[in-house]
Every structure is written in C-alpha cells, then in structure tokens.
Amino acid sequence: MRRVTDGVVLALALSALAAPRAVVAQIDYRNLDDDRPTRVEDAYPVERFAFEFLVPYAFERERSGTAIHASILELAYGLLPNAHVGFKAPLAATRQAGMTDWGLSGLKAFALYNFNTEGALLPALSLRADAVVPVGSLGGDETQLAVKALATRSWGRARLHLNGAVRLTPDAAAAVVEALERWWAGAALDRTFFRQSVLLVGEVTMGRAIAAAALEVNGGLGLRWQWRPTTVFDVGIARRLKRNVGPDYALTLGISSAFAIAALMPNDLGR
Question: Which of 21, 40, 63, 65 is most buried (CB neighbours < 10 A)?
Fold first, then answer.
C-alpha cells in the first residue's frame, strides 16, 4: 500500500482506536512489488504502520526442461513514513528427468527507503537492500547481499519505472528461487484502466546470474485488479527474448492483503 491520502490515514487511525485487534486500510492497486506481477517494482514504500501480506504462486519452465513451482510468502511493514522492511519465505519444487526436489529456498530479508518523492523535476527515487540466507534444501550455499536503485515517473494514468541491482557478494551456488543475480536492470511502463481499478504493465529486463553467465533478456506482461479496498489480485507472464538464454515461459498468480494492527499504532495518530 503506497502513499494514501491524509483522509485515508485519518480513517485508518479512527478505525484502529475502535477495533480491539486489527484494522484494514485502503490499498493502492497501483503498487508494483518485485515479481508481482512483473519483476520491475515501483519506488514507493508501504504506508507507515501498515502491513502488506502477499501470497503468490509462480511457475517457470526452463529451456533445459526443468520445471520450477514456487510459493514465495511475503510480509512487509511500513516502519517509517518513507521506508518499509520485510521478509520472504520461498517454498519451491523442481522437477527434472522425472525427479522432484522440494523444500525451502532460503530466507530473504529486505528494506526499502524512499529518499525523494516525485516532483516537477525529479521522479520518485528509492534504494533497496536484500539479503538471502541459505536456509533449506534449495537455499544455496552462501549468504548473499544486493542493493537496488529504483525510480518512478508518472504522467497521468501512465507511469515509467526503472530498476537496477547489483550483488555485493561473490558468486556461489544460488537458491533455486529468489536468488540474487550478479546484476540486472529493467524498465516497465504501466497504465490504469476501467475506472482506475485495473493496472496493466509491460517490462523488459536484462542481467547475468553470475559474472561468466550469458546475458539474459526477458519480456513480461502483468495485470493487477483491485477486488476489494484491501485486496488485490495479480497475474503475470514472462518469456526470454534471446533464443537460447532465459525461461521458455514463466507465470505468476497472486493475492495481496493490506491491514494494520491497532496495538502497533501510536495513540495520537488520529489527532
């Protein structure tokens, strides 16, 4: 949930005071989280004191014939007015030559800081840090760290997003899913439709998994639909744009829910 209006924040605060356990707030369906529904994300953090819980399913078929199924549970929290933190728990299964391996594909922690709100001259600008710990049978061998720069510029119902990331740690056996690449960059363009309840997005990304790997270039399309004020569905597809490098196709489906917990909110928020 990103940058809601002061009126919505006030409504959230008043609801928090009345609710004994948890409350919900309006979610912005224009959110672009990483891999939800495309890899490129926008530069806006989760709203302060809000939680965002994401339950996705992803499938990828590689050119080698390997099939990967994954469910990457994610929880993010708006720690500050312009920053959020969160973690991911990726569960994955790989199938190749009639054999299936499954398990936890590491644990990922992340933090995003938005140091510039979009204005007349500059776009919204953010920095993000990711850490992947090798937990589980599919979690790789080494702890990996990466940093990412993000920018978002709006023109009415259309927005342009630019992402660029680099891994700070050496190449090592990587997690099956949610691995941190040596470097990658991407651009995405989105637009809202149907009375501002549906978002369509297209992207192009490129990068290398390790320093010696071939350059991978992929294209993707995604859709986000705000079903309820606090619930959003998304679907995305992607495919390699180079003949011999990248997935034959990849599919993501997901649902996200925004909520707040009254006990974690300051008592004077609504004043």
Answer: 40
Q: Are 198 and 192 in contact (CB under 8 A)?
A: yes
Residue-level pLDDT at 62: 85
CB atoms within 10 A of CB 123: 19
Q: Which of 223, 219, 224 is nearest to 250 (CA)?
A: 219
Domain-by-domain residue ranges, the chain? 6-264
Residue 6 phi, psi (nearest 5) = -60, -35
pTM of the entire structure? Answer: 0.86
Given the candidates 3.80.10.10, 3.40.1030.10, 2.40.160.40, 3.40.980.10, the CATH classification of the domain at 6-264 is 2.40.160.40
pLDDT digits (tens, 9 = 90+) for 22-69: 333 344 678 899 998 999 999 999 999 999 999 999 999 987 778 999
